[in-house]
Amino acid sequence: MNYKNPDEHGYYGEFGGAFIPEMLYPNIEELQKNYLQIIESEDFQAEYQDLLTNYVGRATPLYFAKNLSQKYNTQIYLKREDLNHTGAHKINNALGQVLLAKRLGKTRIIAETGAGQHGVATATACALLGLECIVYMGEIDIQRQAPNVARMKMLGAEVVAVTSGSKTLKDAVNEALRDWINNPVTTHYVIGSVVGPHPFPDLVARFQSIISKEIREQLKEKIGRENPDYVIACVGGGSNAAGTFYHFVEEKEVKIIAAEAGGLGVDSGKSAATTFLGTLGVLHGSKSLVMQTEDGQVIEPHSISAGLDYPGIGPFHAHLFKEKRAEFFSINDNEALKCAFELTRLEGIIPALESSHALAVLDKKKFNENDIVVICLSGRGDKDMETYLKNL
Ligand SMILES: *Cc1c(COP(=O)(O)O)cnc(C)c1O
What we know:
Blueprint: E1 11-12, E2 15-16, H1 25-39, H2 42-56, E3 62-64, H3 66-72, E4 75-80, H4 90-103, E5 108-113, H5 117-129, E6 132-138, H6 139-144, H7 146-154, E7 158-162, H8 169-182, E8 187-190, H9 200-208, H10 210-223, E9 230-234, H11 239-245, E10 255-263, H12 274-277, E11 279-283, E12 286-290, H13 315-322, E13 326-332, H14 333-347, H15 353-359, H16 361-364, E14 372-377, H17 385-390
Parallel strand pairs: 4-14, 5-6, 5-8, 6-7, 9-10, 9-14, 10-13
Antiparallel strand pairs: 1-2, 3-4, 11-12
Helix pairs in contact: 2-4, 4-5, 4-9, 5-7, 9-11, 10-11, 14-15
Bound molecules: pyridoxal-5'-phosphate (PLP).
The site of pyridoxal-5'-phosphate (PLP) has 21 residues, from α5, α11 and α15.
């Protein structure tokens, strides 16, 4: 069984594929035909790896969190994606895709963003590499995430307010897809997670797989073996989790844990726990688990963290869930908040609210004293200070 790679049609088991309007066929086919050859070429890898090292600041540290380990009586390592340039793992993917777009001869980049982290990462890559950048963002998110809107504008991106639907992330994706249909030749759509039509889930997972590649090398150096007992990551669409799990999914002794946003509770009607609440459906171009009514209307998700506030989940993760290769936990808003404060006070690291969902697994599951537990700290908490202060 291969968990890592989709089949030639982009399926992970029964999930994935490319469900797109005819107008998008040329774009998607161009990508499907060329992406592997381009991103695996020596020339591409030389430029990409150089930027990851010297611009993004990789490798990010694998930090042994001594105080946190003491508290939970186990061996906890934090993969510090929060120390990347722009403050999260998103830049790994944004840079990769903008480099790919250049090689495809594109001059215009579009992206969607919820919390603004992916928008900032994409605007950053476009500033660096000299491409026009348009970011679609729900009107409500624009109000909630003012500092990131300011950063995007300073970086030279045009931020377009989306006023349809619930005026949040899923509506921004719809609007970006509409733009792409209208500008198929000049434009590349930089999707921010392991979602969307094939080949995006695989493309984004490959760019994020640097996370688990480094974890293996760093563990080997620190403890003499490449495999931990557990890897843990939060899942919105699932890109930091896909990167954290990628080189471990075929390693049977490594247990994999995903943390979803429970919101106010899975039964509260205000949740984003897709594996608990979702059913088979098509959302944004791929077949996966989707929070929807019986007649296929998408249900509005809720999470305290804008980055996890999404009614779907990437097909890679839906497959891991279905095959029970990964264990899924639903973490409520208040549980994530508690763990954000705990990490800050114990280790002096202010995590993103999204990452705090992964930390909260420590309260849900009992680990042994000698277990090596690696948690992906997907981003830093600067953007969440307002929420944190409200809950101090
Ligand atoms: C966007 C974001 C997430 C959620 O996105 P994934 O694709 O699931 O990784 C998680 N953490 C941070 C810090 C983010 O910015």
